[in-house]
Amino acid sequence: MDKRRGAVRVTPRATAAPAPASKAAPAKRGAEHHKVDLKGHSESWVRNHSEVSRSSLKRLLATPLATFMTVAVLAIALTLPGFLFSALSNLQQLTQGWEGETRLSLYLQPTLSSEEADRFSRTLLLRDDIAAIDYISAEQGLLEFKRYSGFGEVVEALKENPLPAVVMLIPKAQAAKDLGLLRASFEAMPEVQEAILDLEWLQRLDAMLAVAKRTVFVLGLLLGVAVLLVVGNTIKMAIESRRDEIIVSKLVGATDAWVRRPFLYTGFWYGLSGALLAWLVIQIAWMMLKTPAAELANLYHSQIELHGLGVIGSLLLLAVSLLLGWLGAWLSVRRHLREIEPR
Questions:
Q1: What pTM was estimated for this model as a whole?
Q2: For the purposes of burial, counting CB atoms within 10 Å of the CB of 324, is it exposed (0-12), middle (13-18) or buried (19 or more)?
């Protein structure tokens, strides 16, 4: 301190030069601290859908009687086309086994003697378009008729044999391609009274099966529309019962997709439950028909093995039911959700 002229002078201390200020990192705000990557977003999406699906299922289980009645209606609507579909599949498999061998039956003139009929059947073996023949004389046909028809006493009372001799023909593969011309050529012979193609009734059956397929398709469409209406009406009642909850959710910023999601899962559970119940009913029905069908086949000295829906039919039933349940819920939510808006 230096005292001069009555003034006080303060000598400053030597201080170290201040260090250059380092560049400070800019402060991060709260939104920048939580960046969500693709993996986190997908995990959150899966978690949300899992929670919504479980909550939708719990809501349905909370009212078991109403849920069962709705599922029963859906199952009945799905059972009829599913059962008819499996029945047509069984008939197609049965007819495919019969189409492997084509037979042509030649009913000979009753005026031919046994020797003439036998000679005529032998001449048919010389044809290039015939693979094999089976000659059944009039006497042999009468014996077989008495044995299997149960009218033995009536046949014995007849004075003459009314049955003609029959020649069963199996054409070769080349000739089987045009059975109409082959039949006409045999029917034009003087020894033949009538030529009958054994597969004519099978062709009629195929035509009836084609009509039945179209009928099942139309019936399935109509019942599918019925399923849509049932699911849509059920979802509509669920929306009305949760109207206040939907309004509050929209007030706090919930999107239509978020509000729509639980109702779509409700339609999914309805479709899944209806498909499982319909599949169970169809399988039980075929199990009940197996024994009578086997007894009927034994009467005709044949074997019939009935099959249910199978893997493909079951998957098709499940897919259609899930699609109808989801679509019915989506249409109902899309229509009625617009009417619920906070004011």
A1: 0.63
A2: buried
Q: How many residues does the chain have?
A: 343
Each residue's pLDDT expressed in tens, for the chain with a length of 343 residues:
444 444 444 444 444 444 454 444 455 444 444 455 566 667 777 887 888 888 888 988 888 898 999 999 999 999 998 888 888 887 777 666 555 456 778 888 888 888 888 888 888 888 877 777 888 887 777 777 666 666 666 666 666 777 788 888 877 765 555 677 777 888 888 888 888 876 666 677 778 888 888 888 898 899 989 999 999 899 888 888 888 888 888 788 777 778 888 889 999 999 999 999 999 999 998 888 888 877 776 765 566 677 778 888 889 999 999 999 999 999 888 887 777 766 6
**Residue 41 included in any domain:** no
- Asked if residues 86 and 286 have their Cβ atoms less than 8 Å apart, the reply is yes
Which CATH number goes with the domain that contains 108? 3.30.70.3040
**Sequence letter at residue 142:** L
Strand ranges, E, within the chain: 2-4, 7-9, 104-108, 130-136, 166-171, 192-197
Are residues 135 and 257 located together in one domain of the fold? no
- DSSP 8-state class, residue 177: T
